[in-house]
Amino acid sequence: MARRSRSFLACCVVAAVTLGAAAGSAVPTGPVRLEVWRTTGDRSELFHRSADVAWHASAAAPQGMVVEVDPTRVYQPVDGFGGAMTGSSAWVLDHDLSASARDALLTSFYGASSGLGMTMVRVPLGPSDFSPAGPGTYDDTRGSLADFSLGTDLTTTVPLLRRAAQLSPSLKVVGSPWSAPAWMKTSGSVAGGTLAGSSYAVYAQYLVKAAQAWAAQGLPLYAMTVQNEPLLDTPAYPSMTLTPGQEAAFVGYSLGPRMAAAGLGTKIVVFDHNWDTPSYPLAVLADPAARRYAAGTAFHCYGGSPARQTVVHDAYPALPVWTTECSGGTWGAGFAGDLVWASANTFVGSLRAWSRGVLWFNLALDTSGGPTSGGCSGCRGLVTVDPATGTWTKNPEYYVMAHFARFVRPGAHRVASSTASGQVDTVAFVNTDGSTVLELVNEGGAPRAVTVRYRGRDAVVTLPARSLVTLRWAG
Fold first, then answer.
1. Which residues are catalytic?
2. Which parts of 304-415 fold into alpha helices (H)?
């Protein structure tokens, strides 16, 4: 990952609403109540269900800001939410927790009824900046793929993800390479450099074999990003640069045809880098050969605004967008600031800018922010595991993930909701069971009264200062 400094927003409030009626049905005339779930910046409520709120006839003089949810204006579907099972996350779960604690944490992540209900996971295809096993790739034998193997992933990551898939049967796995094997690169190293022109064909086959190997373990890749952070060249950890022209040529003439011939159904996703450079995916997608095989664009949160995703969506509205990486860390602004920033930007902001899913970076790291392999030294996972005690604690982003993953289910569609960026940020969804979810973020340092308006009815909700609240109703 590439770290960035961030100015954190004031606060997040998320309201999730579970509707028992179809999106096109009217609100019943009988009493209907909304569930209220809240996480506050002062930690007085942490994914806590507060008192329900009742609907009433719309008032001529509503209280506070009016947030209107319009289920007739429908936008993108949702694939789900999750995090990255990096080598470090797998190591922490496997080495620093007892078997019972490890299963409890996996259940907390992926359990549909007793956990967050996450339905996506990202895995590095080979080494990354969080690879305690070292920089070895899936095949380090020059000139041949005869020695191809998932290596240490077979003994750590694969068993953990098999358990995750038991808990979340619809789990979608997204694979991302940080680097080609050293012998395929101009630098002769997995750290830095670019893909040699003579290696396009063999590297494409290497990635096809990676998809086949994961599928053989019962974990087929839903999607594969072409290259993690292709604009980053660092000697500190596995990385590889690709210009837009290189990525377009690789997708259009090497990876795309071979992946299609293999018949795996894995989506090829371009870019996988920061919001501030939409010109990169636009250039890749402008190439007709690449566009034939590209299934969408992935973004990271370490530069720019999530609104920049809209530039790519508007140019290619048929191609999905995903937010595939973001991390909190020691550079943050404390619990409240981190809660607010992640909620308003990585989740609400990216979802309003057409993301079909949000993936956090490391699922779990230890108390030193590791183990690392030359990358970020101040990063933090959704949870922090203490190796000395074998226990784990939830970080702000865990609670943000809870509000979204638990209530916005795969197949949901975003629907229209009014918003006031910088004050109360909102995003709304209708689930496949007819339930509707409204997420609200109060960025201010004082409570706000909000009137939620839906099909001629109002419900007044108080958003605590710097908080994240979920409303859920059936109607």
1. 229, 325
2. 309-315, 334-341, 350-352, 396-405
